Amino acid sequence: MFNPFIPADSARSRDRLTGALNRQYFFELLGEEKCCADRNGKAFLLCLIDIDQLRNINEQAGQTAGDDVLLGLANKLRDALDTRPWSNLNYLHARFDGGGLMLLLRCPDIEEGRRFAHALRARVAESQLGRQYDLTVSIGVSRYRLGESIDELVARTERTLFLAKQSGRDCVEVATQTSGEPERDNVVYLHEAPARWRDVV
Predict the structure, then answer these.
(1) Is residue 195 part of a domain?
(2) Could you give the CA distance from residue 140 to residue 154 in angstroms, rounded to a whole number?
């Protein structure tokens, strides 16, 4: 497990609900990981994991139930990463937004990232929370391209997550690996289409 120095003031580094890193501190560490990758030529993976139709759970069972689901997802993610064959992966995880987590895997193998994402997706669906709420997740996976900005990496991973949503949810999508490959049509940045995203999630 990748355990970077975490400040003693947990309020500055941790999400209060899930215990994962908060977004701000995660992005600081992601920037450091980018610098290391550019210097050493070793790429890493970024995954965005989003609960499908969390809004429906909040509306039908209440905000507390939605919080329980998000906490359950964070716990399932940690459990999966601490279980063989994934326990050798170095990682950081953080809360991304209201219903999602982001995961940095210090691993250059995009296929291993895909296999882990599928294993996590299945684990969530088969869990007690998954059966209780018909809970699924969509996951986007991308590999850092040496020299690209953090904003470019995150935007590419967001587009891949959105594609997983458009493909029917309960789905894993992996970003194209070379910058020369065209992005698939009808995939947009999440922040460019908030109304459409609310309809899809």
Answers:
(1) yes
(2) 10
Amino acid at site 53: Q
CATH number at residue 156: 3.30.70.270
Rg (Cα) of the chain, in Å, rounded?
16
- Are the beta carbons of 1 and 77 closer than 8 angstroms? no
Instruction: Return per-residue pLDDT of the chain as tens, 201 residues.
Output: 444 444 445 667 899 899 999 999 999 999 999 999 999 998 999 999 999 988 888 888 888 888 888 998 999 999 999 998 988 889 999 998 778 999 999 999 999 999 999 999 999 988 877 667 778 999 999 999 999 999 999 999 999 999 999 988 899 999 976 554 434 433 443 434 344 444 555
Burial of 188 from C-beta contacts in 10 A (0-12 / 13-18 / 19+): middle
Identity (one letter) of the amino acid at 54?
L
Half-sphere exposure of 104 (CA within 13 A, CB side): 28
d(CA 136, CA 129) in angstroms, rounded, equals: 10
CB 172 within 8 A of CB 141: yes
Contact present, 91 and 104 (Cβ < 8 Å) = yes
In this prediction the pTM is 0.82
Look up residue 21 and give its DSSP letter: B
Tally of domains within the chain:
1
